[in-house]
Amino acid sequence: MLARIEYALRETWASFRRNFTLTLAAVLTSAIALLLVGATFLI
1 pLDDT band (50/70/90 cuts)? Predict the structure, then answer.
């Protein structure tokens, strides 16, 4: 069981490194969306 979790985490990390630009774009898009939703609730 532990080997499967370790494998999944290792592959996830490798994917993040391979697709850094896409990962960064997804994180920024999510952050902007959360910022806009939060700002809407403040108004």
Answer: confident
Listed in sequence order, the residues at least 6 apart from 16 whose beta carbon sits closer than 8 Å to its beta carbon are 23
Rounded distance, CA 14 to CA 9, Å?
A: 9
pTM over 0.90: no
Answer for the pair 10, 3: CB distance below 8 angstroms, yes or no.
Answer: no
d(CA 43, CA 25): 27
Which residue in the block uniquely carries the two structure tokens 């898009």?
29
Q: Which token pair is 38?
A: 């939060």
- Using DSSP's 3-state secondary structure scheme, residue 16 falls into helix
Q: In the predicted model, what is the mean pLDDT of the chain? A: 94
